[in-house]
Amino acid sequence: MNSNNYAVIMAGGIGSRFWPVSRAGYPKQFLDILNTGKTLLQSAYDRFTGFIPGNNIYVVTAEEYVTIVREQLPLLPPENIIGEPSRKNTAACIALIAFKLRKMNGKANLVVAPSDHLVSNEQQFQKDCIKGLEFTAENKAFVTLGIKPANANTGYGYIQREAVAVEKGIYPVKRFTEKPDAATAALFIKDNAYLWNSGIFIWKVIDILNAFCFYMPDMHELFVCGMGGFNTPFEKATVNHIYEHCESVSIDYAIMEKANDVYVIPADFGWSDLGTWNSAWENLHRDKAGNAVAGDNTLLVDSRGCMVHSSEKKLLLVGGIDDLIIVNTPDALLICKKENEQHIKLYVEKLKQTGGDSYL
Amino acid sequence: MNSNNYAVIMAGGIGSRFWPVSRAGYPKQFLDILNTGKTLLQSAYDRFTGFIPGNNIYVVTAEEYVTIVREQLPLLPPENIIGEPSRKNTAACIALIAFKLRKMNGKANLVVAPSDHLVSNEQQFQKDCIKGLEFTAENKAFVTLGIKPANANTGYGYIQREAVAVEKGIYPVKRFTEKPDAATAALFIKDNAYLWNSGIFIWKVIDILNAFCFYMPDMHELFVCGMGGFNTPFEKATVNHIYEHCESVSIDYAIMEKANDVYVIPADFGWSDLGTWNSAWENLHRDKAGNAVAGDNTLLVDSRGCMVHSSEKKLLLVGGIDDLIIVNTPDALLICKKENEQHIKLYVEKLKQTGGDSYL
After folding, report:
1. Which residue, B104, B102, B99, B95, is CA-closest to B77?
2. Based on CB atoms within 10 Å of each CB, which residue in A140, A167, A269, B228 is the most buried?
3. SS3 of B338-359
4. How far apart are CA A343 and CA B106, in angstroms?
5. CA-closest candidate to residue B196, choices B288, B132, B267, B244
6. Which CA distances in Å does B104 have to A124, A199, B45, B54, B236?
7. Pairing of the two strands B262-267 and B292-294
8. Do the Cβ atoms of B22 and B15 come closer than 8 Å?
9. Closest approach of chain A CAs to the CA of B296, in angstroms?
């Protein structure tokens, strides 16, 4: 394995769409939504261990989740877990890890990936990452992995690639489009130049730092001033100071949409952002009646299209019901229609209003 | 209180229609289906304590439930709990208590009632029972309480009364009709001569024993031979022997449908046989959206017409769903449509087939 290659897993997200399995104190990336035996974070970590040296894998998360990450990834060196003092979106997170790596290895070449996505074909994922790393090692390039769209999803960003590849399977990016409206998305998916933005990026540390210097000079300056503190006992105080003054902005908006030398590798490794119970349903094995069940001790009779998640031993008997989301946890049970999954946030809001804070 | 008046509560039933709250080892009469703070048996007992001397109240149940009855009715003398060695329907049960009482009190006058029905107006119930007891004390008469039908239910037996009362509110019975078809039931409820058979009977012990002698001579003979054993340490062995040889038949079929001197008191004390989750729903307080909730810690958002029973502290959040039955117990959870409540037996059967015996 190439000792200049690094991976950073971004694991700071929160989210209530997987409530009641996900909670503010224990969000999605730390859960085994699909009942695979591994949490999403553990799967994200395992995906990298095949081609990134173990000591070169980092996890950036919120400070309050550091303990959970340690528990879930016992083989990861504790110093490779970085707790952010506040949520400042992806740009700050990437600047932080880039500056830390810069102090360690001037040739560091980095894959950045979210912790809470699903990848069903790990071999293909590895191939695509290695292709990107080899390309960025040789070139000043900001590479993204673009997913072949499965449908006209309006919840994702889209990447339009140029027609001609610079290398086999690597295309210059023409344009980024944030979440399009339905009509635009419908046009996009008819054109194979459009890809979903997976949020997986590859670049040399030196190149992304130069880009920060050029496109985000204030943020860059803040981090440069903290340079002395990174990878020392003073790192925590340094990062606290930087984050207090640092802008909250996404790496897409801060750099990718503005930079030159942006490339995309069209990828097809069974990706899902696993954003909702419906996408869990889509990614789980479904029985003949279209029911997806994550959990044991459930019996569905004469029922179709249900998404059932149960992290309890309790027997769950569902009779004669179609297209429900049923989520059973030790202290809370949710029942709603699949078509209403976007309302789960509203239900949880209602719960908050009625004094149910302890379930959030 | 008249020391010749007795009550016997029949508490031997089993039933799977309230699964998963009711189980074979803990059927409906021992449960607080409506979350009132009392089980149905406790409510049945309490209804009698206002006008029947405490020592004159008896409970007949299956042998395996005797312990439960003792726990639930600690004020009832233990010798007033009679365990049947097998299920032989209502005729044998009534013969047994009648023979026992005959040995104690030749003037015994008895109300027989099921343990698992609901009565919302206890005062009216008491008035109707006292009216019946006063009538049977003075007359050779077999009195039933007939319920004014609320709808064309095809699950009940109907009683047709004569037009003219023999005393205020007491009518001779013209005919009993077992569960009619829908068309017949629709005709019945247009005619105020028809009443539902509540299974509540009133008669002197001496009169019902004479009726057994006449209409059920074999059964009568069996019990007469056992006479020496009743109310002695040999009662259990005696009853075991009788039940081994005794016919299984309902008191309606055995005597009421054949006897002369059968009367009905039209009654309206908020009766329900509470046979299914839908009838529980009908008898519970319902919110503006028509949801009936027995249990704490539930939140229904944008949901209508649901029947929710929860005997657990777990939060139950139901969002955007109409007309479901949701029953949550510590070890099992049932979700089905209200319209499919008759299928619950099938679901439980399926559960049995798939090895879920421990939940039955």
Report:
1. B104
2. A269
3. HHHHHHHHHHHHHHHHCCCHHH
4. 69
5. B267
6. 88, 87, 21, 15, 17
7. unpaired
8. yes
9. 13
CA pair distance A253, A219, nearest whole angstrom: 14
d(CA B133, CA B108): 10
Could you identify the residue written with the tokens 């010749």? B4
pLDDT > 90 in chain A, percent: 87
Strands A142-147 and A262-267: parallel
CA-based nearest residue in chain B for residue A317: B334
Closest residue by Cα to residue A192 from A149, A224, A155, A231: A149
pTM value is 0.84
CA atoms of A120 and A8, how far apart (whole Å): 20
What CA–CA distance (Å, rounded) separates B255 from B344? 33
B344 to chain A: closest CA residue = A319
A337 touching B (Cβ < 8 Å): yes
Beta bridge partners, A204, equal A109
Please state, in angstroms and as integers, the Cα–Cα distance from residue B170 to each residue in A232, B113, B137, B157, following that order. 96, 18, 14, 19
Tens of pLDDT, residue by residue over A286-340, are 999 999 999 889 999 999 999 999 988 899 999 999 999 999 999 999 999 999 9
Q: Grade residue A233 by pLDDT with cuts at 50, 70 and 90.
A: very high
Q: Can you give the length of chain A in residues?
A: 360
Which chain A residues have a beta carbon less than 8 Å from that of B316? 332-333, 335
CB contact under 8 A, B316 and A333: yes
- The maximal CA–CA distance of chain B, rounded, in angstroms, is 65
Residue A183 contacts B where some CB pair is shorter than 8 Å = no
- Residue A144 in contact with residue A262, Cβ under 8 Å? yes
**Residue count (chain B):** 360
In tens, the pLDDT along A35-47 reads 889 999 999 999 9
Residues of chain B under the 70 pLDDT cut: 15
pLDDT in tens, A57-83: 999 999 999 999 999 999 999 999 999
The two three-digit tokens of residue A204, written as one number: 């040399």
| pLDDT for the residue numbered B13 | 83
Say if the Cβ atoms of A20 and B332 lie within 8 Å.
no
Peptide bond into B114 cis (omega under 30): no
In chain B, what residues touch A317 (CB-CB under 8 Å)? 20, 332-335, 347, 351
Burial annotation A137-169 (CB, 10 A radius, 16+ → b, else e):
eebebbbbbbbebeeebeebbbbbbeeeeeeee
Q: How far apart are CA A64 and CA A67, in angstroms?
A: 7
Instruction: Give chain B's count of helices (H) and strands (E).
Output: 11, 17
Residue/partner pairs of A165-169 with CB below 8 Å, 24 or more apart: A166/A263, A167/A135, A169/A131, A169/A265, A169/A266
Helix (H) or strand (E) holding A220: helix A217-226
For residue A76, give the nearest of A137, A30, A14, A8 by alpha carbon.
A8
CA dihedral B288, B293, B297, B303 (to 10 degrees): -50
Pairwise CA distance, residues B185 & B189, whole Å: 6
